[in-house]
Amino acid sequence: MNIAANPVIEADQTIYLKDYQKPSFVVDSVDLNIQVYSDHSLVSSKLEMQRQTAGDLVLLGRDLELQSIRLNGQPLNASDYHLDAEQLVIANAPDQVSLEIVVKIHPESNTMLEGLYQASSDLFVTQNEPEGFRKITFYPDRPDVLSVFTTRVEADKKYPVLLANGNLLETGEVDANRHYAIWQDPTKKPSYLFACVIGDLAVMKDHYVTSEGRNVALEIYAEEKDIPKCKIAMEALKHSMRWDEEHYGLPYDLDNYMIVATSAFNMGAMENKGLNIFNTSCVLADEEYTTDAAIMRVQSVIAHEYFHNWTGNRITCRDWFQLCLKEGLTVFRDQSFSEDLQSAAVQRIDDVAVLKAHQFPEDSGPLSHPPRPDHFVEINNFYTATVYEKGAEINRMMATLLGKEKFRQGTDEYFRRHDGQAVTVEDWVAALTAGSGVDLSNFLTWYNQPGTPKLQVKAEYDVETQIYRLSFKQSLKPHAKYPNLKAVPIPVALALFDAESGEQLTLNSKALFENGVKDGMYLFDQDEATIEFSGVAAKPVVSLLRNFSAPVNLDFDYSEKELAFLLQYETNGFNQWQATQTLLERILLDDQPAEIYIQAMLNTLPDMIEKDPLLASRLFDVPSEGYLGSRIDQDYQPAMIQEKREALLHTLARAFGETAKETYLSLDPDLQSDFSQAMGVRALRNIMLTMMARQGDASAFDLAYERYHTGNMSERLGALKVLVWNDAPQAQEALADFYSRFEDEALSLDQWFMVQAAHPKATDATIAYLTQHPDYDLAVPNRIRAVSGGLNANPVNTWSFGVQHFIGLAKYLDEKNPIVGSRLLQVLSRWYTLAEPQRSEVKAQLETLKPLVKSKNVSETLNSMLSV
Ligand code: B3K
Ligand code: ZN
C-alpha cells in the first residue's frame, strides 16, 4: 500500500520537538552535477560524510528515480540499503563515507513548485525551504547539516544563464548545443539554502562596497522587458546592505549577490545564500505598473531576504520547530528598516493592521499554535502569521525593553557566539540576555504558548491623594493541546494627558522603568498587579500600549469622549489610529452611536491632511468586514456586518460633504516633500473619490475617469475601483482599457482580476467568468490569489459561493500544489463562528473534502479546522 495514500486515516504522522536528535553523520562537502534535459534531469552527487553519533545513515529523498549508488567506491545493491517513499537508509555504515548517487527527476512536470521545477518555457528554478532539496537528490535534508556545496549546472544553450550559489569557478561547452557552469559556495550552509537557476533571462547590474571594503557585484535577473522595473529593488538592496551595517554591524560576506525573478512561485521570495529567488510580485516595481503599497512591499521583501543573510543563513535553525528564530527576527528587522523608509508611525500602523487581521484570528481559532510549535505534521503549514508576525512582535518587545544600545549588545553577542551554527530560540534569548545584562528568559514563554493574551486594565483616580491607579490583569483562553499556560511579560508603554488642556503629563511612578518621564514603560509580568502614579492634579486620560508595545487584546473601559480626545491630542501616531479603530469597533460590533467618532474625525482630519497626509490617510481606515468578522466568536452573520459597515461609510461620507471634493481638488502629490507624503496624498485622493461616489456626486465618476487616464498605477487603480465598484457608466470602458494596456503585464493584470472579483456585488457568475477567462491559470499562484483574494474581500461571498470556490481549489491543488491548496483552504478556518444554518452547511461541505485529500498539507489543515 502507498503509505501516503490517505493520511487522514493513516497512522499519526506527527513530528515532535521533544524527539529531536542530532544527525548521525555530518557532510563535509557535496559536489552536485545537475544536467537539465527537456523531458528529465539527472542529478549526480558526491557526499563526503563523517559519523558524528551512533545510528543509521539516513538520506531523505522524495519522488526520485535512483539510478545508481556507490559507497566508498563500491556499487550498492538494493539489499544494502532500505528505500521507501521518504528515505534511503544505510545501516552499519562505516564512520567515513563517500557516497556517489545518481538520480533522475522531472522538473518539467513538477507542478508543486518545490525542489527543481520548470517555472516557464524559458526558466528552471529551485525552491528548497523547508524540504525541497530532498526532491532534487538523496541528502540529510535538515537544517542542522551544514556543508560546502560545489555545483555544476549543465543545460541546452537556449538557456544562457546558469547560476548557483557562491562564486563562479568555470564555464564551458559540452558540445554544440549544451554548456555548463561550475559554482562553489565557500560558506557552509544547510540544503534548504541551495539554489540553482537555468534560463533565458536579462540582467540589471550594479555594485556595492561594504564597510569592510568588499566590492560586491549585484545582479537582478528578470525577463528583458522587466529589467527597467528592477531599479527600485536594486536601490532597496543597496540601502538594506548599508542599513544592516549601520544598525547591526553586519556586512555582506560574498563577492556577489544575485536575485532572480519568476512569476511561478508559491510565496514572496527565498533567501538562498547569495542567490535569492523572488516572486516577480516582490521584485518588479515601477509607478507605472505598480501601486504604492506594492512598491513598499518590494522594498521590504528585498530587505527581508537580504537580512536573512545573517539571521537565517550565517546563523540558521537547528530544526524546523525553530522557524520563528529566523523569521520572527528577520521580520522585526525588515519592519524596522521600513519604519526608516516611510513614517515610523504609519509603518507600525500597517504592521499592526496585518497582525490583527491575520495573526489574531489565526491564534483564536483551530489553527492556533505557539510561535515555536512543539509538534507538526507538515512543516509547510507553519509558515504562518504566528511564526512570522507574532515572532516579530516578541523580538520587538525585547528590543523595546532593552532600548537601542542594550539590544545591540545583545545581538552582537548572538552573532559572536553562533556564527556558522544551527541554533534554537533558547540560544537566541540566552545571547540577548548575556550581551545586554538583562534577564529576558521569561520571554521564552511567549514562544512556547498559543493564543493572544487578554490584557484587562482598570483605572481609579483619588482626588484627595492625587493618586492615579492602574490595575492590570492578564489571561489566556484555555487550549486543549497546551494546558499549562503561564503569565507572559507584557511591556506596556503608556502616557497620561491632562483632560482639559491635552498636555502630556510627567509620570511619577516607581513601577516604571524610569521615573519622572513623559513616555513611560511598565513591564507587567504577573497574573495581576496594580501601579500608582502620584501628584496627578486631576483625572487624566491614559493612553495604553503606545505603539502597540505588546501583541495583546487590550480591554480598557475608555469612554468615547476619551477616545476622541486621544485622536486629537495623543502625540503617538499609532495610538491616534488605535483610538479611531477602537471607536469604530464599538460602533460596528457593539452598536454604539457614530456621532462622537464622526465629530472627532471632522475636528482632526482636515488639519492633519495638511500636515501629515500619510498618517491622515490611515486615520480614515475602517476595519474590513473580514477583520470585524474575526472579532465575532459565534453567531457571525456576514451580511449584518456588511450592512452596518456600509451604513457607517455612508454616514462618514455625508459628514465630510463638500470637503471631500475640495480636498480631492486641492491635493497634489507632485507638491509633496518626499515619496511617502506623495503616497499619502494619492491614498487620500482615492479616499475622497470614494466618499464623493458614496455621496452620489456624479462628478466623482468624471474625476475618476480622468484620473484613471492620467495617474500612475496607484491612482489608476484607485479610480478604477471607484468606477467598477459603483457600476459607473465608464466602468466597462475603463476595464477594457486596463486589460488592453496591461495584457502582457502579469502583475498588473492580476489587479484587473482582483478588482472584478472584489466587486461588492460579485456573484458566482462573476467568479466563474474570471476563472474561465483565458488568462486565468491554475499553475500560477499569483493569479489564483488575485481572484481568491478579491473574492474574500467580501465575506458575504466567501461564506456563500466562496465555500465551494475554496474547497474546489483545495481539492484540485491537493496533488498539484498542496502548499498553496492548504493555504487557500485556511480562508475557511473560522467556519464554526457562523450563525446556523450556515455553520452546519459549511461544515458539511468541508466534511465532503475529507475522504478526497491525499496531501499531508491539506489533510493536516482540514483535520485541525474540523477539530473544533
Ligand atoms: N524563508 C522563505 C519562506 C519559505 C516558505 C516555504 N513554504 C521566505 C522568507 O520568509 O523569507
Ligand atoms: Zn523570511
UniProtKB/TrEMBL annotation:
* EC category: hydrolase
Q: Which Pfam families match?
A: DUF3458, DUF3458_C, Peptidase_M1, Peptidase_M1_N
Gene3D superfamilies the record matches: 2.60.40.1840, 3.30.2010.30, Neutral Protease Domain 2, Peptidase M1, alanyl aminopeptidase, C-terminal domain, tricorn interacting facor f3 domain
What does it catalyze?
Answer: Release of an N-terminal amino acid, Xaa-|-Yaa- from a peptide, amide or arylamide. Xaa is preferably Ala, but may be most amino acids including Pro (slow action). When a terminal hydrophobic residue is followed by a prolyl residue, the two may be released as an intact Xaa-Pro dipeptide
Specify the superkingdom.
Answer: Bacteria
Span of domain Peptidase M1 membrane alanine aminopeptidase: 233-445
Alphabetically list the UniProt keywords. Aminopeptidase, Hydrolase, Metal-binding, Metalloprotease, Protease, Zinc
Q: Which residues form the Aminopeptidase N-like N-terminal domain?
A: 52-193
Domain Peptidase M1 alanyl aminopeptidase C-terminal: where?
A: 561-866
Annotated signal sequence is none
> GO molecular function, one example?
aminopeptidase activity
Domain Peptidase M1 alanyl aminopeptidase Ig-like fold, chain residue ranges per copy? 451-556
Give the enzyme's EC designation: 3.4.11.2
- What cofactors does the UniProt entry give for this protein? Zn(2+)
Q: Which family does the similarity line name?
A: Belongs to the peptidase M1 family.
Q: What is this protein called?
A: Aminopeptidase N
| Source organism of the structure | Acinetobacter pecorum
Q: Which gene encodes it?
A: pepN
